[in-house]
Amino acid sequence: MSASTFVLVLDLLGTFVFALSGALVGVNKKLDLFGVLVLSFAAGNAGGITRDLLLGATPPPAISSWHYVVVSLGAGLLTFVWSPVVQRMQELISIIDAAGLALFAVSGATKAMDFHLNPLAAIMLGVLTGIGGGMLRDVLVSEVPTVLHADLYAVAALAGAAVVVGSYYLPLFTTTASLAGGVLCFAIRMIAIRRDWQLPKPHQPRDKNQPSPS
Amino acid sequence: MSASTFVLVLDLLGTFVFALSGALVGVNKKLDLFGVLVLSFAAGNAGGITRDLLLGATPPPAISSWHYVVVSLGAGLLTFVWSPVVQRMQELISIIDAAGLALFAVSGATKAMDFHLNPLAAIMLGVLTGIGGGMLRDVLVSEVPTVLHADLYAVAALAGAAVVVGSYYLPLFTTTASLAGGVLCFAIRMIAIRRDWQLPKPHQPRDKNQPSPS
Amino acid sequence: MSASTFVLVLDLLGTFVFALSGALVGVNKKLDLFGVLVLSFAAGNAGGITRDLLLGATPPPAISSWHYVVVSLGAGLLTFVWSPVVQRMQELISIIDAAGLALFAVSGATKAMDFHLNPLAAIMLGVLTGIGGGMLRDVLVSEVPTVLHADLYAVAALAGAAVVVGSYYLPLFTTTASLAGGVLCFAIRMIAIRRDWQLPKPHQPRDKNQPSPS
Fold first, then answer.
1. A143 SS3 class
2. Pairs across A and C, CB distance < 8 A
3. Which of A149, B105, B178, C67 is surrounded by the fewest CB atoms within 10 Å?
4. Cα(first)–Cα(last) distance of chain B, in Å?
């Protein structure tokens, strides 16, 4: 298996897992079959598609290559038919989801650097590639995107993307940096899940008269 | 009237009816005049605009040609002023809406094939052209898009787009295929309305202890 | 300071204030730090980014130039840390917000005319540049965008953009027209705030049996 085939396989695995998460949300919201498939595709591909639109790289591979479509819809169909089974595999899914996040963050940042964006923008597009699918998934079912208020998720993607972008200014091999970035993102995400790490929330001084939560 | 004028007229008619549906939602949600016009434009044009962005066909005709803008805002103004009249014409509107869906599905798939997308992607973009406007309309008023959970709507668009895309691999005239695809989409949609056809919903095994609906 | 530096400074000031409004919404919705920063960036830049995508001007400056990113995230951080202070400055913010709206409407319409759009489309893109950020901000927290149902906001942007576009057909200097358009937009917006001007809402004849509000 060549290097580019290996990356494609990883990319499709990430798409597949993200699509599973979209389909599960669709099933839980009692959407019909078509709705579940739309959420699968959105969750699996919206991050990469938005990145590509911003870069002017049209049509995005998620549309123009049939691999992504088939993988996304396959995940959606699977979940539609066997949602209880998929739901019982939540722990496995959250591990593969962390791997998908790592991969999307790294590949998104790399693609942005290849398009000669500045490093800050490349990091942002790496994060967007990782979280965009989940955001659209939640907006479509009229929920505030999970990534905006719960869990240490985006920060893991940020760290992974930053390592990749930083490596362009250091005497490092791209492959080494991609691997390091991906592993860092995956590790942060997994530890965050295990220890329930959260980002700080803003002070709410107007709630002072409520009973203190501690 | 030449063939291309005929298509433009049909396309504008579809835009007009979709814009009516957007304006009605805006009126029912008690938006102000501007809000109603935004929903008209979004419902009438978001599907085609998203397709064009994904294809890299910028600026989209819905923006660069004044026809679409005038037709959409006209529908919005009409509904704003005479919403009771428009509301009483629901049945007529649902018929023209089915025609609009047929037309958008066929024209969207055709445009995608002209941009050399693969057949699967072309069918998806046909469906997106047909349903994208209604989806943005619903998201903007903070509702889960109707097309994701109720009614056989997207499947009609899918069938129409599939016929058009399939015809590229058969010794068929494009005009014949477009017509066949359009008629098929329209027919499925109308029958679905009459018989209240629905797509299957996922099993909800956790609701077992609730009284069975049958 | 050269003219283009002056415009950049104004543009960044507008972005900063819009980003403040996004961050405040995020704080009030109890998002975490990352969520607040996403809302800052979205509110400050989504209008301009959408305009640029529609024009095919990719990558949008809001992504490719680090100025906008830094200014948006700075506003978000500030608000996250000192949200009570920012909240007490609401009046000052609403004044700078009106200035930002004026600036975005004028610059958006100008950019659209430079891309040879028709006048109607250029006015629309001017308005979109002014209101798009606030709309995405509200959609992301699952609210109907404020601009669609409350306050005379979009009309101010419309007036400003229309003056700029109109000047292309008159023997006027662009600078004069930009200034006139900006001042008109700012003035309408400020008077609307002071006098609580609203756009008309649709008649709701079905509510007849409710007590009349007058």
1. coil
2. 86
3. C67
4. 54
- Identify the closest residue of chain C to B36 by CA–CA distance: C148
Q: Which residue of chain A is at minimal alpha-carbon distance from C56?
A: A56
Q: Give dist(CA B153, CA B150) in Å, integer.
A: 8
CB contact under 8 A, A201 and C33: yes
Can you give the C-alpha Rg of chain A in angstroms? 18
List, for residues A112-156, the tens digit of each pLDDT value. Answer: 998 999 999 999 999 999 999 999 999 999 999 988 987 788 999
> Which helix (H) or strand (E) is A90 found in, with range?
helix A90-114
Check whether the bond before A211 is cis (ω within 30° of 0): no
Backbone CA torsion sign across A148, A151, A155, A160: negative
Tally of CB atoms within 10 A around A172: 15
Could you give the C-alpha distances from A139 to A133, A150, C35, C70, C134, in angstroms and in order?
10, 15, 14, 26, 16
**What is the DSSP secondary-structure string of chain C?**
--HHHHHHHHHHHHHHHHHHHHHHHHHHTT--HHHHHHHHHHHHHHHHHHHHHHHT--S-HHHHSHHHHHHHHHHHHHHHHSHHHHHHTHHHHHHHHHHHHHHHHHHHHHHHHHTT--HHHHHHHHHHHHHHHHHHHHHHTT---GGGTSSS-HHHHHHHHHHHHHHTTTT--HHHHHHHHHHHHHHHHHHHHHHT--------GGGTTSPP--
* pLDDT tens digits, one per residue of A21-50: 899 999 988 899 999 999 999 999 999 999
Helices (H) and strands (E) in chain A, counts: 9, 0
Q: State if pTM tops 0.90.
A: no
Cα A62 to Cα A48: distance, rounded to the nearest angstrom? 7
Query: CB of C35 within 8 A of CB of A147?
Result: yes
ipTM of the complex: 0.85
Distance from CA of B149 to the nearest CA of A (A): 4
CA torsion sign for A158, A164, A168, A170 is positive
Nearest-CA distance A206 → chain B (Å) = 27
Query: Are the beta carbons of A45 and A62 closer than 8 angstroms?
Result: yes
Token pair 């129409």 in the structure block, residue: B160
Distance CA B64, CA B73 (A): 15
Q: How many beta carbons lie within 10 A of that of residue A4, not counting itself?
A: 8
Buried residues in B75-113 as b, exposed as e (16+ CB within 10 A): bbebbbeebeebeeeeeebebbbbbbbbbbbbbbbbbbb
Interface of A with B in 154-213 (CB under 8 A): none
Which positions in chain B touch C118 (Cβ < 8 Å)? 64-66
Question: Residue A201 has which token pair?
Answer: 């929330």
Q: CA nearest B20: which of B34, B39, B35, B33?
A: B39
Closest CB to C56: pick one of B38, B59, B80.
B59
> Mutate which of B54, B113, B114 to test chain A, going by most A C-beta atoms within 10 A?
B54
Task: List, in order, residues 6 or more apart from B113 with CB less than 8 Å away.
Answer: B119, B122, B164, B165, B168
pLDDT over 90 percentage in chain A: 55
Single-letter code of the amino acid located at B110: T
What does the buried/exposed string (b/e) look like for C62-96 if buried means 16 or more CB atoms within 10 Å of the residue's CB? Answer: bbbbeebbebbbebbebbbeebeebeeeeeebebb
